[in-house]
Amino acid sequence: MPLRGTGHGKLVGDEAPYFESLAELDQWASLPHEKLTAVLEYQARPQFSELLNQRGKLLVCHDYKGGYTESPSGLCYTFNFWPLCDTFVYFSHHRVTVPPSGWINAAHRQGVKMLGTIIFEGSGEADCLKLIVGCPQAGAGPTLRTDSIPVSRHYASVLAELARQRGFDGYLLNVECPLRGGPEQARALAEWILLLRSELVTKVGPHAQAIWYDSVVFNGQLRWQDRLNSLNLPFFLSSDAFFTNYTWPPSFPALTAQYFMSLDPVLISDDGKGSSISSVKSLQSIFTGVDVWGRGSHGGGGFGSYKAMTHIDPQSLGLSVALFGQAWTWESEQDKPGWNWDQWWEYERKLWIGPADPQEVVPVPDAPRRPGEPECPHDAFEPVASFFVHATPPDPAQLVFYTSFSPGVGRSWFVEGVNVLQTEDGWTDVDKQSSLGNLVWPRPSVMWESNDCPEPLPSASSMLDMSDAWNGGNTLKVSISYAGSTADEALFRCIWLPVQSLNVTSLVSYDVNIVYKTVACEGSDLDLGLFVKPLMAGGGDLPELNVGTSTQSDLENGWTRQVLSFSLSPGTANASVAVGLIIGFIAENPSQALDFSVSLGQLTVYPSPPTARVSRGTPGILWAKFQSTKPLTSPSTGLSGLLAWDIASFFPHLTSRVISSPEDPNPAWILDDTNERFPSFLYFNIYVNLHPLSGSVTEATAAIFIGTTGLDGRANRFYVDPAMLPKNVMDGRGLRFYVQGVSNKGDVLPWEMCAHVDCMFELGGR
C-alpha cells in the first residue's frame, strides 16, 4: 500500500504469511480465523472459442528472493502480464507458502488462479510423512498400527481451510525429498492428494487446483523425469495438473504428448456420474517446465527461453508451459551500476512482449549444450506473449472491471487528480495493480474512423506516466503524431483508439465510465467520444451492439469524464467488445504535422444501475474507531494502533405514498436486488489532522494523507504505524483520523459520506 514514511513495522502486512513447519500450521489451525473479506473471489474468464480451449496454457511460478519482498516504501518487482497467464504460483522455500493478499487480488481481478506452495526438501522427510498420517491430538491413546501407511484427512482439511480463509485457489505440491516408506508411502501420498483435492473443491470451489511437481516417483525415490511417464503417472492421475522439471532435452515434450495419448481414456476422464474426484486430464494439464534462470533448461533461460517454448509448442502440440523464476529480469540486473526501475521495466517488457522498437534485434546468448547433444537451430527471438492466447478479464457483470492503469508501483499518490503523497523511493502495492489496457499498451492500434481514408495512419505510442494520475500513482499516456496532409478532407480527421477488450453477455446493459486528460499542440483542437465496438472472436459475423450516446462532464485539475451505456442486440448470446475513444482532431493548417496526447486515468465497466423507480442506497462510512496499542500518555514516543470502521448504504428520504386499496398492485417501494445493491470498495484512503493545543481541528480537506488499505486482505481496518505519521501532528491535544472510501467503480466518497474518529492525548502524562 502507498504509505507515508519509511521503515514500517510488520503489522501493516499480512498475518502469518507463511509456515515453516506443519507444527506451525497446526498452531494456526487451533485458533479461529475469519475469512479475509477484502480478498476478491475468483471469477473465471469467459471462454467463447473452443479453439482457444485446445491451446496450451501458461503457469507462472514466482520464485523471487524467498518471496514476501514487496515494500510499501520502495519500487519492487511486480508481474503485469496476467492476460497471458492461466495460473500463478507464489513460490518460496517455507514449508507452506501463502500468497500475499495483494497478489491474490491482482490475479483474481484478471481471472487468473493463484496457488500457494507446499514444499518438502532437505530435512523435510519427517514432515512429509506427517502430512500423510496426520497429527494425533494431545492426550490421545495409542495409534492404530497396520502393515501399511495410514492416510489421514487432517492436513488436507487444514490446508484447504487455509486456502479458503486467505482466498487463494490451491497448491503446488513440491516433494523434493525421498519417501523412505518406498512404494507404500508413495501410494499413500497419492491418495492424500485426492483427499486434498476433495477438500479444496468443498471449501474453495470447483476451480481449485492441486498441481504435482515432477520429483519423487512411484517407488518413493527422488528422480526428476523431465516429462510425464509411467514412473510419475500415479501422481499426475491424483492431481489436477503436472509440472515437469525443466532439464529436458528437445525430444521430451513430443514424447510426453505421445505418452499421454497412449493412456487408457478411462484414467484421464471422469466417470460421468459425478462420483469420481479425479479431474479430466488433457495435454493442457501438463505444464512443461522452463527455467528463466537457465540451470539446464533448453535455450539457456533468459532471452533464450523461447527456444524451450518452441519445442513445447502450446499453439499446435497443445502442451502447457510452466515458466519458473520470471523475476530473473529484476534479480539478475538489480546490482548493476545505475540500474533503476525504468531500466527494469524496459527489460521486462522485452522478455514478455518484445522491444519497444519492433526493428530492434534482441541478442540471444548461445546456450550450453549437454555432452553429445546435437545442435538445435532456432529462429530469432520471440517474446513470451507470442506463444499464448491473450485472455480478457472476467465478465463485468460478474466482477466490475476497474483499472487505473497501474503496474502496482508508483512514486506519488493521487486522489481525484490531487497529489496527496510524494515519496523519495516510491511505493509498491500489488493490490492496486490493474489492467494496463490490453488494446492500447504496449502498442496502440489506432485506425481511421472512416474506412475510405487513403492516408497513412498517425503513429501512436503509450507509456506509464508517474508524474500525474486521477486515482492512484500513474496515468497511461498515449502520444499520437500526425504527419499532416494537403487533402481537402484533412482539416478534420477522426481515429479510433481501442483501449480494453472485454467479453460480455446478453440480457445485461453495461455502463462504461472513463476519465482522461488531453494535451493538444498549438493551432489544433481535439474532440473525444467514448465508444464501444464489437470484436471478431473465433470467426463468424461481428456481433451487433446497442451503444448509447456518451455524456461528458468536466472534473477538477483538467480531467474529463465520459459515460455511456451499451448492450448486445437481442439474439446475441455473448460477444467480445473493445472499449475505446473516437478522437477527432482539427488543425488550423492541416498540411503541418501535429502532436497530441491523451492521458488515461481510469476506466470502469459495470452493469447499468436499475431504473429510476428502484430505491437505491448511497455508499458511505457509518463510523470509525481507533484503538491504540499503548497508553496515550506519551505520544512523543510514537502512536500506533488499529483503525476500524463500518460501511453502510444510506437511502434517500422516503416520500409519503398513499395506498388507496389493499388490491393496489404497486408496492410502496422497489429495492435493488442486484449484486451491486450494497456498497463495495476498492480501498480506503486514510488521513490525519492535528487537534491544536488551542482552537478547533481544521476541515477534512486540510488533512494529511498517511496511506491506503490493501496490504493485509482484511476489510475495514488499517494499522497505524508510527513511521507514517508526520512529526508535527504529535504536537497538539490529539489526532483526528479520517477514512475515505473509493468504491469498486472508482468513485471517491465525498467528505460528508466519510467518517472520522478523534484520538485525544492524556496531556497530564506528557
TrEMBL record:
| Superkingdom of origin | Eukaryota
The record's keywords, sorted A to Z, are: Hydrolase
Cellular component annotations (GO), alphabetically ordered: cytosol
| One Pfam family per UniProt | Glyco_hydro_85
Query: Record keywords: GTP-binding included?
Result: no
The protein here is known as Glycoside hydrolase family 85 protein
Cross-referenced InterPro entries, in alphabetical order? ENGase, TIM_ENGase
Q: Where in the numbering of this chain does the Cytosolic endo-beta-N-acetylglucosaminidase TIM barrel domain appear?
A: 71-413
Q: Which GO terms describe its molecular function?
A: mannosyl-glycoprotein endo-beta-N-acetylglucosaminidase activity
